[in-house]
Backbone:
């Protein structure tokens, strides 16, 4: 610790360079935070998916419906504690760009299955009481400045017509990762008003009492409906979300390659700045050694300088990334889970520490190996 | 008087290690920038080229894609009667009423299901979409459970080799042919008989998702649109096929673009910092040289120009490297989900010369910004003190 003022002095002697190096690390870590956020967001839902939930869809594909009568039959199966359903609505609010997911839901059971969404009880009751009521996630409500009681017109695409809903409840996610963009309304309202497809729903979400039986129950469900007109395909919510994410493409690879390019560039920038700093200071280091400071101390001093730069830069960058993600999704609803988690932030700092160590290593070793005679000759 | 550029080239040579750092930083930035744009452009090109300027597509009024549309057989007949629609040699109108559904099939790479578009069409479709050719096997026969498969679908999803059987909706479909539509969205689709497909998927008979018709002349578009929209029986939207597919590409290419620009601009800031660092230390290390140049009579402007030129030069080398690094991506096929149709789509990266020019311009801009401030410092250096420095 007693060397700290010394290190700080050294950093201050070339302010521009220190600022620029800290700046490039900050930028790189900001980018890292951004990429991690994008990646988690595109993997939407995989991490937040409940382990005790199964998704049951029509075997042909998700756009094919299932009959509403399956709800009772699903409930009768072993280990199934509840079955709820939803239907994709796909309407447009004002403009196609204002995308957010809308579902018509089974109001009796939906809340029991999706417990991660927190809704004040009085709001939920007023939603239940209003046939045209709707529940909307906080993020979407804030995006369009909706408040309780607002009447929202939505143009139907699959179910044609001009639909209107009253905002009766606003939900929040129990954790920060939760999707707060959804819009739910009564299935009954949809079923009464639509001209076709009555009695059909989109998909079921089944809650099971023991996550370990997931595979077994999924097989049992598909077996139950085999050779019927509506065969099913059942998988855990996690697998369902992951399958979805995989369709978006090999995003992980792209993110990783960008990350690698950035990290490599960053190492070069910091390394070269540190090397220049050591080169300029060779005579000084000679003086230090003459005064009796050991090789180890000199090595430590240079390394500490590099690590300090990296950590300050890293902290700044991650902090900015966090601030940026707090301001919301830049693509208007294409990335619902725009969130930077604490473990990713910690990983970023570890990365910065690593960059500081590696970049400082060669100059530090050079400084350590310096012979006093050679160094002093340059004074 | 201008300082000869050979001075800068030699200086860079003398301090190559620092220059390499800048070059690589800028190369990386340009590379990422170009890769993102190539992806967005490739995606867009795939969809836009799916439409032919001679074709129109008819959807239900208000439908934003085929997935949410429905057109009845009566309406199909009315469209076929329109004089603007081209006819085949036997006098039948060149149009294809199509049923579009989605089936879930496993991806070759991961084994997880992807949403694949299955298109049921009339056997006249090859006359309507003249860019599509069967490359292997033959076209499906009407009324039989046969599939012709796009060339990308064969390589993207499991089980679509020629002669294989695929189960869709409880029925076995045989793959009898593979078609090539020239890198368009159709290449990711499965094609088959429309009536059989609507039966299999429990759709009402004589209802189609869309009608694609070939125009007698592409100038007839407005005339046909006016005729059809004036008809009270037609509650439809008529769009040029090209415009329709251009719209389909909007969401995803916007996503890629927004993210690409965001990432590239953040990286650009980092690269400019790197360039600044390099140029500042170049100026610091060469203060005597600079002072000598000034003493020889080169003006401040010449010094600024010379250092900016040096920085831009370094950046351009980085830019060229970045372009070269991205070139192998040209034609690389990736797959993603197209949100508008909810289905999986293969597309190829497109690295075009104009994109590379953009990349070089971007590099030069970073070099300019990175070189300007250090150059100013160089020019402002007091000659006498700098000369005295050892």
Residues:
């Amino acid at each position: 610790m007693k060397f700290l003022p010394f290190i700080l002095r050294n950093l201050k002697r070339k302010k521009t360079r220190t600022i620029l190096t800290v700046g490039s690390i900050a930028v790189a870590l900001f980018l890292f935070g951004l990429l991690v956020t994008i990646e988690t967001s595109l993997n939407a839902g995989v991490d937040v998916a409940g382990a005790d939930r199964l998704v049951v869809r029509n075997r042909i594909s998700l756009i094919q419906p299932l009959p509403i009568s399956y709800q009772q039959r699903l409930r009768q199966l072993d280990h199934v504690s509840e079955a709820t359903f939803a239907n994709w609505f796909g309407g447009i609010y004002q403009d196609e760009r204002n995308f957010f997911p809308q579902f018509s839901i089974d109001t009796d059971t939906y809340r029991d299955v999706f417990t991660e969404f927190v809704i004040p009880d009085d709001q939920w009751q007023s939603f239940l009481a209003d046939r045209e009521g709707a529940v909307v996630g906080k993020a979407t409500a804030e995006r369009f400045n909706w408040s309780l009681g607002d009447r929202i017109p939505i143009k139907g695409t699959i179910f044609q017509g001009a639909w209107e809903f009253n905002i009766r409840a606003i939900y929040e996610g129990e954790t920060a990762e939760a999707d707060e963009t959804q819009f739910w309304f009564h299935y009954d309202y949809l079923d009464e008003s639509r001209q076709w497809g009555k009695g059909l729903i989109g998909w079921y979400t089944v809650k099971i009492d023991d996550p370990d039986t997931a595979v077994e129950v999924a097989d049992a469900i598909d077996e139950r409906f085999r050779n019927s007109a509506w065969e099913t395909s059942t998988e855990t919510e996690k697998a369902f979300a992951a399958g979805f994410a995989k369709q978006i493409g090999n995003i992980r690879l792209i993110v990783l390659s960008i990350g690698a390019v950035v990290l490599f560039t960053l190492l070069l920038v910091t390394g070269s700045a540190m090397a220049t700093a050591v080169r300029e200071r060779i005579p000084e280091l000679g003086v230090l050694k003459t005064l009796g400071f050991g090789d180890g101390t000199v090595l430590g001093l240079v390394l500490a300088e590099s690590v300090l730069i990296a950590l300050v830069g890293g902290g700044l960058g991650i902090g900015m990334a966090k601030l940026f993600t707090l301001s919301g999704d830049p693509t208007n609803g294409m990335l619902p889970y725009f969130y930077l988690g604490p473990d990713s932030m910690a990983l970023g700092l570890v990365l910065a520490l690593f960059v500081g160590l590696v970049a400082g290593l060669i100059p530090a070793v050079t400084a350590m190996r310096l012979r006093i005679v050679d160094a002093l000759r340059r004074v | 008087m201008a300082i000869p550029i050979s001075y800068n080239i030699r200086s860079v040579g003398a301090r190559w290690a620092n220059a390499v750092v800048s070059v690589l930083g800028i190369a990386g930035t340009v590379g990422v920038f170009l890769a993102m744009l190539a992806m967005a452009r490739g995606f867009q090109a795939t969809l836009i080229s799916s439409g032919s300027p001679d074709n129109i597509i008819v959807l239900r009024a208000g439908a934003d894609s085929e997935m949410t549309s429905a057109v009845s057989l009566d309406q199909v007949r009315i469209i076929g009667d329109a004089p603007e629609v081209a006819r085949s040699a036997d006098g039948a109108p060149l149009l294809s009423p199509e049923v579009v559904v989605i089936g879930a099939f496993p991806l070759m790479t991961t084994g997880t299901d992807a949403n694949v578009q299955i298109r049921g069409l009339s056997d006249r479709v090859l006359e309507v979409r003249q860019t599509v050719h069967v490359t292997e096997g033959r076209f499906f026969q009407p009324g039989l459970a046969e599939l012709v498969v796009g060339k990308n679908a064969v390589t993207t999803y499991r089980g679509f080799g020629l002669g294989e059987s695929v189960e869709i909706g409880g029925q076995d479909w045989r793959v009898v042919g593979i078609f090539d539509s020239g890198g368009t969205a159709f290449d990711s689709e499965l094609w088959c008989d429309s009536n059989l497909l609507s039966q299999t998927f429990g759709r009402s008979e004589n209802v189609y998702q869309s009608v694609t018709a070939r125009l007698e002349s592409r100038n007839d578009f407005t005339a046909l649109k006016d005729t059809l929209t004036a008809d009270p029986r037609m509650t439809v939207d008529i769009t040029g096929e090209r415009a329709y597919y251009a719209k389909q590409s909007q969401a995803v290419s916007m996503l890629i673009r927004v993210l690409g620009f965001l990432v590239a601009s953040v990286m650009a800031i980092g690269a400019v910092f790197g360039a600044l660092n390099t140029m500042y230390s170049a100026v610091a290390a060469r203060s005597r040289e600079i002072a000598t140049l000034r003493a020889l009579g080169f003006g401040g402007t010449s010094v600024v120009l010379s250092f900016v030129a040096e920085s831009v030069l370094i950046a351009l080398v980085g830019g060229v490297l970045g372009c070269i690094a991205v070139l192998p991506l040209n034609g690389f096929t990736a797959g993603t989900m197209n949100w508008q149709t909810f289905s999986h789509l293969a597309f190829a990266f497109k690295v075009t010369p104009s994109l590379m020019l953009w990349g070089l311009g971007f590099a030069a801009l970073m070099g300019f910004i990175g070189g300007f401030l250090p150059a100013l410092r160089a020019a402002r250096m007091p000659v006498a003190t700098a000369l005295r420095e050892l």
